[in-house]
Amino acid sequence: MAEIFELGIADIRSGVASGDFTAKEVAETFIARVSSAKALNAVLVETPDHALAAADATDKAKAAGETLGKMAGVPIGMKDLFCTEGVATTAGSLILEGFTPQYESTVSSNLFKAGAGMLGKLNMDQFAMGSSNETSAFGNVISPWRRNDGGNTDLAPGGSSGGSAAVVAGRIAPAATGTDTGGSIRQPAAFVGITGFKPTYGRCSRWGTIAFASSLDQAGPMAHDVRDCAIMLEAMAGFDPKDSTSLDLPVPEWEAGLKSDLTGKRIGIPKEYRVDNMPPEIDALWQQGIEWLKDAGAKIVEVSLPHTKYALPAYYIIAPAEASSNLARYDGVRYGMRDLPDGAGLQDMYAATRESGFGPEVKRRIMIGTYVLSAGYYDAYYTQAQKVRTLISQDFDKAWESCDLLLTPTAPSAAFGLGEKSDDPLAMYLNDVFTVPSSLAGLPAMSVPAGLDGQGLPLGLQIIGKALDEQGVFNAGLALEERAGFVAKPEQWW
Amino acid sequence: MSVDKETVKKIASLSRIAVTEAEADALVPELNNILGWVEQLGEVDCSKVEPMTAVIPNKLRMRDDVVTDGNVREKVLANAPAAEHGFFGVPKVIE
């Protein structure tokens, strides 16, 4: 039998339910994994007591013959964007240093009610702004993966959910929460060879999740495989009156509905995703994915999403605009740090606090957002971007007339080395070229690990579905997963 | 459209972010690179397009006009850098 630390959600849950091991043994196993993985810098705050208390509750419930929750006995990692009651939460930023939420986010609360425990709060790009985890104020997360060249170059785990990606790939936690604004679940999942799912906008409540760009932010699971993502998303999702954009719909039983026979399904291949300079290995993997889905019974059709090239520039107006508004709350008055120079008045205190509390990328985006929303520029930039967003959404609607799902690569490259792209914000933004369009349209999408490149690094394929068709996305993901047979894992060096 | 140093300082001031002269100098090309890149959106004919307001059709709900929260002053103040006498403390704003 596999060791406990190698198991995912479904196996842990069934092992606990059948008495193969106790939830306490599981929690202790992963607590030890967390404390011996400090070299990855993926965990900002370790919370062993939380994991043990949840395990104890599960073991007692089992002894009493009670029905166990969907996540019973499963300890998880929590991205530090989720407010956790009594546990420091920083969103990877100095400006929230010392902040201890007095309430629990809806997503984390839902997971805990389903029986999950928390191993720790996970490092991330500051305020989720980044694609490599290098904007965290608390240091880079190091990917557990290394190139097969025998060197020891530190690689980026992707971002912004870089800590989540690293702990799941390193089998330091069986699963973790992520959030995705423009690709922050899917791109890191692809970089480290795990499965990551962004649901339809509104499926998961945003209440208690620190806001970046509210019209785009969605929480989702990052886990070993498709089934684990389905189980965890069922536990995370659900209507919440405290989030005005929460969808008032029942949560489907995605796990029970899993089916990899795609007979009758039409898979669209968007021709605009064949970008210049795409590495041949990624193009070849995409072709392989097409063959796998054909083998699963799907029909392949070419589709056009003509406004794809405008998705990234539209995103880099809309997301900073929303961020500049959302991040106005960090003023040194109500929470977090305060920088009060001698003799400073209120306005100087605001400016000094924000100058020393925010990192360079966050400041850059706040200023871009402020500029595009300012008098005289609002229509030329912001309104135009929102109109282009409408066109991008209409592109998808049109594609759905001839297909049910889309297949694309997740990211335009495998993981890169830390520092290789951090000097050029625009080069970094291009990482999200395949993930941003579906974010702008609010659609469900997932990344499935599908192969290794010549350097021995994971590559992912992305499935995009119609709004609310998470089941279709899960099923096509499962068809890919069964055929890709991706079993590669990073060798433990930490 | 491109920004000069004075505009950068104005944006920083509107954003309530202190910048030094050197930082303002460095931000001019950084912001112009990004703004120059997003300007390609101007190529798109949007004369007959409505701006997006909600990605997934949804309507704002009404709820009963009753108190659902409150009496949590200690919690609200628990994270304040300077909480005094049940209030948020700030530097003096009136001389």
Report on this structure:
The complex is a heterodimer of chains A (494) and B (95). Chain A is an alpha/beta fold and 494 residues long. Helix content of chain A is 36%, strand content 13%. In chain A, the strands form two sheets. An eight-stranded mixed β-sheet of chain A has the order 4-6-5-10-11-9-7-8, sandwiched between helices. A three-stranded mixed β-sheet of chain A has the order 1-3-2, sandwiched between helices. In chain A, strand 7, helix 8 and strand 8 form a beta-alpha-beta unit. In chain A, helix 2 packs antiparallel against helix 3, helix 9 crosses helix 11 and helix 9 packs across helix 12. The longest helix of chain A is centred in the last third of the chain and has 22 residues. Chain B has a two-stranded antiparallel sheet with strand order 1-2. In chain B, a hairpin with a 2-residue loop joins strand 1 and strand 2. In chain B, helix 1 crosses helix 2. Chain B is flat and about 55 Å long. The model of chain B has no long low-confidence stretch (mean pLDDT 93). Chains A and B meet through helix 9, helix 10, helix 11 and helix 12 of A and helix 1 and helix 2 of B.
Task: List the SSEs and their pairings.
The complex is a heterodimer of chains A (494) and B (95).
Chain A (H helix, E strand, L loop, with lengths): L8 H10 L4 H13 L7 E4 L1 H16 L11 E5 L26 H8 L3 E6 L39 H8 L5 E6 L5 H7 L2 E4 L19 E6 L2 H11 L29 E5 L9 H16 L3 E5 L7 H16 L19 H12 L2 H13 L5 H22 L5 E5 L15 H5 L6 H5 L4 E8 L5 E8 L4 H15 L10
Parallel strand pairs in A: 2-3, 7-8, 7-9
Antiparallel strand pairs in A: 1-3, 4-6, 5-6, 5-10, 9-11, 10-11
Helix pairs in contact in A: 2-3, 5-6, 9-11, 9-12
Chain B lengths: L4 H10 L6 H18 L34 H5 L5 E2 L2 E2 L7
Antiparallel strand pairs in B: 1-2
State the helix count of chain B: 3
User: Within the largest sheet of chain A, what's the order of strands?
Assistant: 4-6-5-10-11-9-7-8
Distance linking N and C termini of chain B: 41 Å
Q: If helices are DSSP runs of H or I spanning 4 or more residues, what is the number of helices of chain A?
A: 15
Q: Flag low-confidence runs of chain A.
A: none
Spatial strand order of the main sheet of chain B: 1-2
Radius of gyration of chain B: 23 Å
Number of E strands of chain A: 11
**CA-based shape of chain B:** flat
Q: What's the alpha carbon Rg of chain A, rounded to whole Å?
A: 21 Å
